[in-house]
Amino acid sequence: MTKLTVFIPTLETERLILRGFEESDLDAMAAMYADADNMRFIGGAQPVHEVWRRIAASIGHWAMRGFGFMAVVEKSSGDFVGQCGPLRPHAWPENEIGYSFRRDAQGQGYATEAARASLAYAYRDLGWETAISVIDSENFASQGVAKKLGATKEQTDVSIWDFTADIWRHLPPEDFFKSNPSTSLN
Amino acid sequence: MTPVMSPIPVIETERMILRGWCGHDLDALADFFGDERNGAFIGGTKDRAQSWRQLATFAGHWALMGFGPFAMTLKDGGETIGYCGPWEPAGKHDEPEITYGLRSGYHRRGYMTEAARACVEYAFDHLKWPTVQSFVDKGNSASLGVVRKLGAKLDCETTLYGTVPVQIWRYPSLKSAEVTA
Description:
The structure holds 2 protein chains of 2 kinds.
Chain A: E1 2-8, E2 11-12, E3 16-19, H1 26-34, H2 48-65, E4 70-74, E5 80-87, E6 96-101, H3 110-124, E7 132-135, H4 140-148, E8 152-160, E9 163-169, H5 173-179
Helix pairs in contact in A: 1-2
Chain B: E1 2-8, E2 10-12, E3 16-19, H1 26-33, H2 36-39, H3 48-65, E4 70-74, E5 80-87, E6 97-102, H4 111-125, E7 133-136, H5 141-149, E8 153-160, E9 164-170, E10 178-180
Antiparallel strand pairs in B: 2-3, 2-10, 3-4, 4-5, 5-6, 7-9, 8-9
């Protein structure tokens, strides 16, 4: 008997819980992916059967890499608001912090809060020494999140898979923890 | 920490070990999914990055459902030659199936039938499925050969994802493989 053992941490921030995906996240994830305009920078709208596979693939990403996307849940309501986490799919340029949020959960700093927790986890628990975020050149909301975390645009129009995007470089661990002191303690 | 633990059994057949997935199975899956002869029946080919995601999806299917496709590996040499197993991704159909795929370099030696036979038995005996079936494109003669060799009967036609026409072939209960759990 081989065991597929996947340990997915639960990260808690002031307003959010980041945890492993569950099948019950499907409806909320599918609603997020059904919003074509909101998903236009990350491959467009996806039907529910594709979203289920993405949830499965996110858990499998944890199984193979030891990290991956987590479901982000709003503490006050218990609602799924987005996904965020350390990523490295095959043929990806480097380790990245990825995030996407429901449109109605945007504009409240949730993505920044979740990405900050993910970056802290990657540096503290995974031992990463650097991290990027891959962001479409016209995705200003996502660029804003990266900027708030102290990231800077490093390369433009990089070919990845079948698209091109910009690469934003996050602060190195020491500088990140210096400017985000609360993240180093939990 | 949220531990998601799925015991993945190992099934031994005469010539193969069916087991869970590892990162080094990517070469085999990329070979299978990149082959246009296979892509014709599974919604198109996949490149290496997409094959990696499929590998992650297979592993995640086990974590979510407690069952899923196995890697088919040869006892002689250890090569991963395909995938085979119970499969029930949401939105595909309202019934689960035994899904399978064999790299083209390993056709015509009975490997697919041998692995599918073991997985059909696993679905009846361990998963307690009341009926065990595979969805087959009526133009896929290799796949039709597999279900016929296992004594499956054509039940009806249906669509996957609401759009892709396939035939439902239902298997009789078979006795063959030794399952070590």
